[in-house]
Amino acid sequence: MNVVLGVSGSIAAYRAADLARELMRQGCTVRVCLTDAAQRFVTPVLFESLTGQPCLQDAFDEPERGRMAHIEWAKEADAIVVAPATANTLAKLAHGLGEDMLTTLAIASRAPLVVAPAMNPKMYADESTQAALTVLRGRAALVVEPASGEVACGDTGQGKLAPIEEIVSATMTVLRRSRALAGTRVLITSGPTHEPLDDVRFVGNRSSGRMGAALARAALLMGADVTVVSGPASVAYPLEARVVRVRTAVEMLAACLPLLAGADYVVGAAAVADYRPESPVSGKIRRSGETLDLRMVRNPDVLASLSRAATLPRPVFVGFAAEPDEGLEHARRKLAEKGLDAIAVNDVSGLGVGFEAPDNALTLLAPGVLEASGRQTKLGCALWLWERVAGLRGR
Ligand code: CTP
């Protein structure tokens, strides 16, 4: 496992030497990259002697002539750990500013990021630093919170580099996570469906597609090959995912069926309309009487149909159940009726979670499993869910 250890200019830079050694003890190859400010505190020679690897200092360093190090190292990295991370480096990472070798390398890499901030408590508490950390957490970076106490300048508060063992353990967590779905193929349904009434109107629902997008991002972070079949949602799906756009439930099922063979996981995150107008009018329904009767007919159940159509070796089927009343009984019934291996119950009753909201709270139901995620961002919930669902394969 290749770890790029980025060291930025904090007094705690000297502790990166212990961190490098501990990571090596865990079996990692450690390549160190120093920012300009870090070089005021520690030298490349220290890290080169310790790790036996070249230490990058400048954005144009090329330890092997003709091979751009920021691309090579970025490609080969299984994790990037920035410890200590200063306010300046965190801000650059959050905004994608490639002003030095470390930040350029971080932009070029798809490896998971661990940051361990260390700075004066006032700098740590500053809104700009906290905003940068929120942005990075939103991209699934693991933040190893600094400890509280007296810092080098004599001030007291939160800002001391976290204990080395916590940073090592966070690194091991992201390394494990990034391989959890390696080599697998994931099919996700996402977003609402729009069932036409006429050429300009439809029956739809409030699903934003954000949970589907989060599931896709999380699966990519965990090493899967991802296809999303999405109804009309404005959410941006990750560029690395294959996205098939559909409008109706019938189109969604037709798009999914050919993708079923070869899928290892099928996750139904779409809010599929259960009914569609029986006879959509071509053109526009004109205003006429005081009332308008609308006859609806049943739509196919996309996930249940896919589960029925699956042949051996069967993929793992995971459904979502949007329950306004914490109805685990309803969810249990859906699990059995739809032929699913697990179902994530989505509490849509509360404010700020579920439909259209950035956060979610899931309860996972599977044979012998009943576990709650607690309130987290949708990406946090998605990672939480995949970590559990990955274990259901081959069970
Ligand atoms: N689902 C589907 N096709 C449908 C309806 C639901 O694929 N026509 C999937 C959803 O993507 C979700 C799961 O089935 O993974 C449960 O969806 P939900 O709307 O909670 O359940 P329904 O079966 O529609 O039951 P009800 O609306 O009565 O609660």
Tell me what the structure shows.
- It contains 13 helices and 21 strands.
- The protein is α/β, with parallel strands linked by helices.
- It has 2 domains: 2-175, Rossmann fold, CATH 3.40.50; 185-392, Rossmann fold.
- The strands form 6 sheets. Strands 12-11-8-13-16-17-19-20 form an 8-stranded mixed β-sheet, sandwiched between helices. The chain has a 5-stranded parallel β-sheet with strand order 2-1-3-4-5, with helices on both faces.
- Strand 6 (147-150) and strand 7 (156-160) form a beta hairpin.
- The chain is elongated and about 80 Å long.
- The model has no long low-confidence stretch (mean pLDDT 94).
- The protein binds cytidine-5'-triphosphate.
- The site of cytidine-5'-triphosphate has 16 residues, from helix 11 and strand 16.
Question: Using DSSP, what is the number of strands?
Answer: 21
Count of helix runs: 13
Cα distance, first to last residue? 28 Å
CATH evolutionary superfamily of the largest domain: CoaB-like
Low-pLDDT segments: none
| Integer count of domains | 2
Strand arrangement within the widest β-sheet reads 12-11-8-13-16-17-19-20
Instruction: Give a short account of the largest sheet.
Output: 8 strands, mixed
Oligomer: single chain
Ligands bound to this protein structure? cytidine-5'-triphosphate
Classify the secondary structure makeup into a structural class. Answer: alpha/beta
**What share of the residues lie within helices?**
25-40%
Q: Using the alpha-carbon principal axes, give the shape.
A: elongated
- CATH hierarchy class name of the largest domain: Alpha Beta
At CATH level 3, the topology of the largest domain is Rossmann fold
Q: Supply Rg.
A: 25 Å
The share of residues in extended strands comes to: 15-25%
